[in-house]
Amino acid sequence: MTPRTASLLLVLLALPLSAVAAGPPGDYGEGQRLYGEVCFSCHGNRGDGRGPNWKSTRPRPPAFTSPLMKRMTDDYLFAVTKFGKLNLLKERTGGFKLRGAKPAAMPGPADSIEDGQIRALLRWVRGFPAGKQPDDPTSREIYQAACAECHGKAGRGDGETALGGQPPGWPFVSRIQPPPADLTSREQMARFGGRYLFWLVKLGRIGAAEEKGYDYMEPFGHILKDAQIWSLVRYVREAFIEGKPRGR
Ligand code: HEC
Ligand code: HEC
Q1: What pLDDT, in 10s, does the model give residues 119-164?
Q2: Of 82, 151, 179, 219, which is least surrounded by CB within 10 A?
Q3: Residues with Cβ within 6 A of ligand 2?
Q4: DSSP per residue over 45-72, as a string?
Q5: Pick from 140, 162, 134: which is nearest to 16 by CA?
């Protein structure tokens, strides 16, 4: 490899994923129509997660307008809608592969951490949004040892596993999908009840769904064609994640 191609490669590697990937294919208008028929009931007409079913899902649906969504790839949005979250996390996607990122569930089981310690850790974690945490050196230590690689030292979801060598700072596209939660975000943390978080940390995301029945994004691949799902991805990306809805 000549020095010139080597430096070109370096430049390419340093580009954020979003700059390399073209926008999603699909038709905005079709996406808008399908969203109003199928997705609004949970995610809300304005993409704020406050659809009529907002109260009945555990965890609550995410707001597509949240900055955290900018860390998701189009491929992830497509795959989570087509296959559902559990199938995606278990890599039951019939050969479909995410480009530039790998699916990774919130891990578990954290059997090495006792129940009481998980509760203390979560009280400490809950202090992130206010920037005020209980004085609890043990929880801080466990957090830095077991959680910071993904969630970041300061809880912003920007640990090395998510950054994968990208420069720290914001925004970035996560190298693991879904992106690790931003624990400092009030909007995100308000989606989760205490019991859900306990089982999430104890059993992991897959265990919390399979053993404790917590909700996850269901598959829609049996009622929607791929082209329709790409239209939804385009609509969600443009209207909510980028915040540029077009008039009807
Ligand atoms: C019955 C309620 C419900 C419906 C209907 C629904 N969703 Fe979801 N969706 C959820 C819940 C709950 C989550 C959060 C899952 C989690 O955190 O594990 C979610 C998460 C998502 C995510 C983010 C994935 C992530 O990992 O956070 C996307 C993208 C998404 N939904 C797209 C859609 C689209 C597109 C439709 C319409 C085809 C749709 N959803 C319909 C409940 C729903
Ligand atoms: C290997 C990476 C990784 C590690 C290590 C990790 N997490 Fe996570 N965490 C994630 C991912 C990915 C999500 C997003 C889950 C989702 O959307 O289903 C998440 C989500 C969360 C959430 C929000 C709940 C949700 O559904 O998004 C909390 C709270 C959390 N983690 C706490 C912790 C704590 C406490 C630890 C340490 C004991 C920890 N995590 C370790 C990857 C990780």
Answers
A1: 999 999 999 999 999 999 999 999 999 999 999 999 999 999 999 9
A2: 219
A3: 59, 104, 106-107, 110, 121, 125, 146-147, 149-151, 161, 176, 178, 180-181, 183, 192, 197, 200-201, 205
A4: TTSSS-STTGGGSSSPPPPTTSGGGGGS
A5: 162
User: 76 lies in which domain range?
Assistant: 24-241
How many independent structural domains does the chain possess? 1
Q: Is residue 76 part of a domain?
A: yes
pTM check: above 0.90: yes
Tell the residue number behind the tokens 């995606």, with chain if given: 88
Residue 112 lies in a domain: yes
- Residue pair 222/216 in contact (Cβ under 8 Å)? The answer is no
Taking residue 167's Cβ as centre, other Cβ atoms within 10 Å add up to 8
Is residue 15 in some structural domain?
no
Give pLDDT tens digits for 49-102.
999 999 899 999 999 999 999 999 999 999 999 999 999 999 999 999 999 898
